[in-house]
Amino acid sequence: MDMQTKRKLNNGTQIPQLGFGVYKVPAEQTYDTVAHALELGYRHIDTASFYGNEEGVGRAIRESGISREELFVTTKVWNDDHGFNRTLRAFEKSLARLGLDYVDLYLIHWPVPDLFPETWKALEKLYHDNVTKAIGVSNFLDHHLKTLAATQEVNPAVDQIELHPKLQQKDTVDYCREQGIAVESWSPLARARYLDDPLLVQLGEKYKKSPAQFIIRWHLQHDFVVIPKSTNKDRQRQNMTVFDFNIDQHDMTLLDQLDEGLRVGSHPDNIPQ
Where is the catalytic site (predicted)? Predict the structure, then answer.
């Protein structure tokens, strides 16, 4: 496993397992932040219309000198753009802001009640029109996925959920694995909420890695796609220096036992507006 390690999604598309998120990266910092990440070797960038920074992401990609085929770009449809036609228009606006001909993954950002099955039909059209290589969802719990399954024609390729050692969402992860849906971890470091946990500090010292590096490695060894975010250049580099060690099974089990349902973001049944 190394920086170029990819996971094959259920439609055959390859996604780099370690990506780079830009949630809450200010628009004026996005170009420099993404440009540096690409320079370091990140090839998977995750943004969203709601983040307000698609323009900076797109410019950094276009000016990077890296061929488009080497890059994996994700964006998402926001809650006030649900519905078939609204979603199609939202996608066109995202594509224009990014300045790209296609995206690699387009996601429903949150499962807005009663609307997301219709929104999914729009994503299926975009997929069949070849303007996105894969489609998926974000913040869907297993019960949302089961509702979607009743009317979907295309199985989601990805479910991007809040996931870290203290919030492991096992019911949703198990369902995704049964259905061949890749699990992608957002807020994989829980916004640094518990990087000082004694177990993480102890294990980090054992492996000569920081607690953040240790948690990212935990995600990778669980076969999750993981998208840590940092505007700090040194941390960007540290977050990708996670392919030169393995966590043994005993220590993986210790980390798995940290689960306590601790959310740092919104609950998917309480949709943010």
Answer: 51
Instruction: Give this prediction's pTM.
Output: 0.97
For the cut 80, the answer to whether the pLDDT of residue 273 exceeds it is: no
CATH classification of the domain holding 63: 3.20.20.100
Query: Is residue 104 assigned to a domain?
Result: yes
State how far the Cα of 201 lies from the Cα of 220, in Å rounded to an integer.
Answer: 19
Task: Supply the angle between the helices 233-240 and 27-40 in degrees, to the nearest 10.
Answer: 40
Whether 52 maps to a domain, the answer reads: yes
The C-alpha atoms of residue 7 and residue 260 are separated, in whole angstroms, by: 28
256 located within any domain: no
Q: Is residue 3 over pLDDT 90?
A: no
Q: Where residue 180 falls among pLDDT bands split at 50, 70, 90?
A: very high
For 8, 111, 221, 245, the CA distances from 227, given in Å and listed in that order, are 17, 20, 14, 19
Instruction: Please state the rounded mean pLDDT for residues 30-45.
Output: 97
* Arithmetic mean of pLDDT, 84-110: 98
Count of domains for the chain: 1
Residue 110 CA to residue 273 CA, distance in Å, equals 10
> Above 80 in pLDDT, residue 103?
yes
The answer to whether residue 171 sits within a structural domain is: yes
User: b/e per residue, 80-115, with b = 16+ CB within 10 A?
Assistant: ebbbeebbbebbeebbebbebeebbbbbbbbbbeeb
Tokens coding 83: 């519905």
Catalogue the active-site residues.
51
Domain boundaries, position 109: 13-192+224-231
